[in-house]
Amino acid sequence: MDQKHIRNFSIIAHIDHGKSTLADRLLEATETLTPKEMREQVLDNMDLERERGITIKAHAVTMYHQAGNGERYQFNLIDTPGHVDFSYEVSRSLAACEGALLVVDAVQGVEAQTMSNVYLAMENNLVLIPVINKIDMASARIEEVEHQLMELLGVDEKDILKVSAREGIGIRETLEAVVSRIPCPNGNPDAAFRALIFDSTFDFYRGAIATIRVKDGRVKTGDAIRFLSSGKTFETDEIGRLKLGRFPVDNLQAGEVGYLIGGVKNLKDIKVGDTITLAEKPADPLPGFRDPKPMVFSGVFPTDSDDLTELRAALERLQLNDSALIYEPESSAALGFGFRVGFLGLLHMEIVQERLEREYNQSLITTIPNVEYRVFCTDGKMLVIDNPTALPPVMKIDRIEEPVIDSQIVTPSEFVGNLMKLAQERRGVYKNTTYLDSSRVTLHYEFPLAEIIFDFYDKLKSSSRGYASFDYEFLAFRESDLVKLDILINGDPVDALSMIVHREKAWEWGSKLTSKLRELIPRQLFEVAIQAALGSKIIARTNVKPLRKNVTAKCYGGDITRKRKLLEKQKEGKKRMKQLGKIEIPQEAFLAVLKIE
User: Fold this and answer.
1) Based on the number of CB atoms within 10 Å of its own CB, is 282 exposed (0-12), middle (13-18) or buried (19 or more)?
2) Is 546 exposed, middle or buried (0-12, 13-18, 19+ CB in 10 A)?
């Protein structure tokens, strides 16, 4: 199709602002799907996406629209994930578009993620069409939200579309706005072929499948293609367009969106953001490519050590459709054999754990999530540590650097004091405050990533009665006064409970964690000492009192020395038991750190 009649666009929005519902209405209005094929959140094909109301995996779909000017247009809707964990995938999807619909909830207004998505879109020079959704709601604040969008984007009131995706109001106007306001692609059909990979999936029969946007030139079946990041060459088996299924075509040319199958057996060879060219006539790579980098790491162990092989197979299969997931074998004295798994963020970690338990019936123990630290040793070496047990001895460490994020919190102005107090507790560095309107404020803070991976989001919501929203992006590694906090049970360190904390917070964490463990570890016939230590220095201690067996019950009458003799014998036995006894640590103990107030 002529590029003048192609429109590539995305829908960007904060979670639960109606992005998937609006996509459903666009598919209905363009008759891409029959009424029988339609269902709610049609582009979200995972159960988890439907339950949580979020998009986890990007999707693309081609639609055809007969515009009011009598001409027929090809719309390529590139749906993006909505969460900050997937910001790189979102940026690559936006790089494949010329414009985007910015959807804002008429009740909730502009949120932190809305602003983050706006900045991402602006970085990619996209034309934004502001859309206020849910105008049919009784509590809709249309005028207020209009004012917020005018302040944020610098647009006029007439440029803002008002729709109700649920009721189908304003959908026709939205389609016409896509035609009139989003520019057509400007690729050169006669130049050397190059295409951007913005998504990939794995098919057990066809191998790895790349979803691409052709920037220049054209590609047809049988062409020898090259992936520029790896330099590997493959032959194209099939190309086509996506309409919630794969529809083969003869060729794809500049401006078009589709899929490409080339007999690639490993998903790692198809990297999101990479450039594809023809092997005999390679072109320059497109800008912006980088390998997705895990930010949060956790140990994942099977509850029963016999299930290790099954867990490995489950992780392998998950990795086929999620190239950002990385794992390596790990062993723990407390938990046995398992895997150290790297995730893009906390949501990604939750999703992977839930899929392992649901889809692969795995019973798991997961250790405290950690971030990646840079440890500079006295001998000049730099180590990258994602597991506290790998931290070198204190005398060999020169300094430790931790990842810092740049964040924005959007909140009603009445909760600013609560949130500033929370930010201060989490070692936040205040940058500035901007007012969206008379009642909504954006707070800019820099936080150590380690401070927000536990329960920061829950505390944020409770401090603002659910009204505040939070978004962040990685900033840099910075030096910090960090120490390794060990938990000892009867003098033996439990490696799965070790953590890296800031020195100022070590005593507080140690005392709270030992108190929590005292409640969770079952009583034995001997006293169990629970200690928190920094190196060889004990900073907190609690004891689990022993169960007392009444050994003097069989004594009746006689001298007190008879009873004393039995009590001394019991005392010796308890001492020996304490040296030899093994203590079962329940699974809740490993999650205790996540529930500390």
Assistant:
1) middle
2) middle
d(CA 492, CA 581): 12
* Segments in the chain below pLDDT 70: 1, 34-58, 81-86, 334, 551-553, 556-558, 574-597
Coil vs helix vs strand at 425: helix
Q: Domain coordinates of the chain in residue numbers?
A: 3-181, 198-278, 296-367, 374-480, 486-595
pLDDT at 447: 92
Could you say which architecture CATH assigns to the domain 3-181? Answer: 3-Layer(aba) Sandwich (3.40)
How many Å from the N-terminal Cα to the C-terminal Cα in the chain? 60
User: Cα(462)–Cα(37) distance, rounded to whole angstroms?
Assistant: 41
CATH number of 198-278: 2.40.30.10
Q: Which DSSP letter does residue 385 get?
A: E
Distances (CA, A) of 336 to 206, 301, 303, 307: 37, 8, 10, 12
Residue-level pLDDT at 230: 79
- What one-letter code names the amino acid at 253? Q
- Looking only at the bridges linking them, the beta strands covering 296-302 and 370-371 are antiparallel
In the three-class reduction of DSSP (H, G, I as helix; E, B as strand; rest coil), residue 573 is classed as: helix
CATH architecture of 486-595: 2-Layer Sandwich (3.30)
DSSP bridge partners of 343:
296
Q: Please name the fold of domain 374-480.
A: Alpha-Beta Plaits (3.30.70)
Q: What is the pLDDT of residue 83?
A: 61
Tell me if residue 430 falls in helix, strand or coil: strand
Task: Please work out, in degrees rounded to the nearest 5, the angle formed at the alpha carbon of residue 189 by the alpha carbons of 187 and 192.
Answer: 95
The pLDDT assigned to 375 comes to 92
Architecture label for domain 296-367: 2-Layer Sandwich (3.30)
User: What does the pLDDT look like over 4-24, one tens digit per residue?
Assistant: 889 999 888 877 788 888 888
Cα angle value 113/119/120 (rounded, 5°): 85
The C-alpha atoms of residue 556 and residue 563 are separated, in whole angstroms, by: 9
Could you tell me if 5 and 13 are in contact, meaning their C-beta atoms sit under 8 angstroms apart?
A: no
CA–CA distance, 494 with 584 (Å, rounded to integer): 12
Q: Which pLDDT value is given to residue 401?
A: 92
Q: Looking at this protein, which amino acid is placed at residue 219?
A: V
Quote the CA–CA distance of 249 and 243 in Å, as a whole number. 13
Residue whose tokens read 């829908």: 11
Q: DSSP assignment, residue 585? A: P
Check if 3-181 and 374-480 are the same fold.
no
pLDDT at 596: 57
